[in-house]
Amino acid sequence: MDVGKKAENAVDMRVNIAGIVWKNPVTTASGTFGSGKEFAEFVDLNKLGAVTTKGVANIPWAGNPTPRIAETYGGMMNAVGLQNPGIDLFCERDIPFLRQYDTKIIVNVCGKSEKDYCEVAERLSHEDVDMLEINISCPNVKEGGIAFGQNSKAAEHITKAVKRYAKQPVIMKLSPNVTSISEMAKAVEAGGADAVSLINTITGMKIDIHRRQFVIANKTGGVSGPAIHPIAVRMVYEAAHAVKLPIIGMGGIANAQDAVEMILAGADAVSVGTANFRNPAVTMEIAAGIESYMKKYGFACVSDMVGIVD
Q1: HEC profile of 116-155
Q2: Catalytic residue list
Q3: In this structure, is residue 286 part of a structural domain?
Q4: Contact call for residues 29 and 93 (beta carbons, < 8 A)
């Protein structure tokens, strides 16, 4: 239906991300929502624009030693280390589960080498999933991801490599632990990325002063939650001004106000992570809240809001 002919007060929540149309601009941040099963009792997955799965590698990963999660001011810190069951079990178990719902499936892909990433992309090229999110930005693995995510030449190279095998649109997930987010966004755009998502967690550290030990076994971990939201908004704004790619904004989104702020800064869609642990239904509430905001301020479609604060 043409937006201009819609009934009064009706809004079009659809967004087009690299040719894939979501019913609304809300997805889940990888690693905070499993592959949907864990939250299906609390969330109607049909009400989400997309579900982004936990990271999937070519073989099962055990992840980092425990303890690997800690609470911080305004958020949390984790060093889970991308624990996952591997691509074979994922395809057998998780894709059929998600296909029961009217939502898009974004598979987060992790790896320790170019070969790892490409193997998973090639395997998924034959599966019924909608998009791939390539995680080149996890601060909690000693190989692979973070090395690609902090060097623009490496980021461009891995993007080109994955694109040779991927049949679905490729989203490159960017790290905030860089000197210039604009440079990294330009690098993956040059490599052929179809979209970018940002930001991943910010590297942090927490020490137990009574035990005089690191709280997390990995010593460092990725900080997420409301405390990093202003940083994420700034980086989304900078990336939006650097590239022409669709942007999925994330980082400390806890409510509809945070999500709208991210869209006004330049995000075409938003991804909700840490807030899921506090309120399992938060993604549905955020989608409804964005719709209410649009009606209140007379926005006919989501794209009318994207990046208008300039």
Answers
A1: HHHHHHHHHCCCCCCEEEEECCCCCCCCCHHHHHCCHHHH
A2: 138
A3: yes
A4: no
Q: Which domain holds residue 170?
A: 11-304
The CA–CA distances, whole Å, from 56 to 103, 135, 178, 241 equal 19, 10, 24, 31
The CATH number linked to 120 is: 3.20.20.70
Q: Which pair of structure tokens corresponds to residue 306?
A: 């994207």
What is the pLDDT at residue 6?
A: 45
Q: What is the CA radius of gyration of the chain?
A: 18
b/e code 25-45 from CB counts within 10 Å (16+ = b): bbbbbbbbbbbbeebbeebeb
Model confidence at 150, pLDDT cuts 50, 70, 90, reads confident
Helix (H) / strand (E) containing 108: strand 104-109
Alpha carbon of 264 to those of 249, 269, 298: distances in Å? Answer: 11, 11, 14
Q: Which of 58, 164, 158, 72 is nearest to 109 (CA)?
A: 58
What's the confidence (pLDDT) of residue 8? 55
Does any domain span residue 310? no
Tens-digit pLDDT profile for residues 65-124: 999 999 999 999 999 988 899 999 999 999 999 999 999 999 999 998 889 999 999 999
Looking at the structure of the chain, the number of domains it has is 1
309 lies in some domain? no
Instruction: Give the residues across from 84 on adjacent strands.
Output: 61
Number of residues that make up the chain: 310
Write down the mean pLDDT value for the chain.
Answer: 93
Closest-CA residue to 242 (of 279, 205, 190): 190
pLDDT digits (tens, 9 = 90+) for 231-288: 999 999 999 999 999 999 999 999 999 999 999 999 999 999 999 999 999 999 999 9
Q: Closest Cα partner for 107 from 40, 42, 27, 214?
A: 27
Instruction: Judge whether 259 lies within some domain.
Output: yes
